[in-house]
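Following up on my earlier thread - several people asked me to post the actual chain instead of describing it. Fair enough. Here it is, all 288 residues.
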Amino acid sequence: MKTFDVSVISELVLRKLKDEGVFSANKISSINTIGFRAVLKYFERVGNVIVNNDILRGFLEQQHDKYKDDKKLAWRWQLIRRSTELIMYFATTGRIDLPLLPKWNKRDCQLYIKPTEEQLANNDNIYGLVWRTRTALMAFGYTNCTIKYYDLGGFGKLLDAHKNAGTEIYSRKICAQLVLDMQRLVDNGRLRRCQAVRKAVALLHEFHQYGSITPATLSPFHEVLLNPNFEALVEEYGNDALFSEKLSEVTVRTAKSIIKGFLLVLEDAGFSSLNGVTLSTVCSVITV
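Reply from S.P.:
Thanks for posting it. Predicted structure:
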């Protein structure tokens, strides 16, 4: 990720704000004396003004924790946040036309910042791909609640997974591993469900392949799921087959569908795992 001298970038932003007349003189003064100053004082105090956007987001999280319980200082937090986001946006795009920011949420920060034109034009860039997939999703007229469900439980986690892997290139392997990790959390009782991640991965893959998503992909919203043990088996099979590259994606998808159908029938027969399943059980299920 690109690093930069935050004192230099803040000075460039300040000059551009004055040159382009985007804000009033009083607003620019507040951005400088309260927003930028808070950023510079913090990084000068820690002894390193060479930062990147991830480091600045960490700074924002600290500032939010500092001000979140003091309603009288909410205005200060908002000013520090917007000033810091302005630095981040300028460092990425060279522009100061920062869009309106959504309500703060640590997981949402990157998700709602519009990617650069280069990122949007590159079909393999995860930030551009997620942005365009979400835009296509919203075009179907889903409620804000549903979009938020996909954002927090799906797309945000996909961005985090790629960031943690140190790449901006869309990776089906990273996506598949995330689904597997989330399913394990469900299996261990640490998470109720991981459907949002699975749906987001499916949508992202379809948009990456075809440049569009279809209503069939999105519905039914609450699809029938296997119990966690069986879901984990199907996902592990799919991931192993995908990673080994022994089978094509179409073959893996078909096989998963057949396996899921078998396991659904097995569930109806009273099984929640493969424990106790015998050859006679399999034969009886297959002939049902």
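The two ends are 56 Å apart (CA to CA). That should answer part of your original question.
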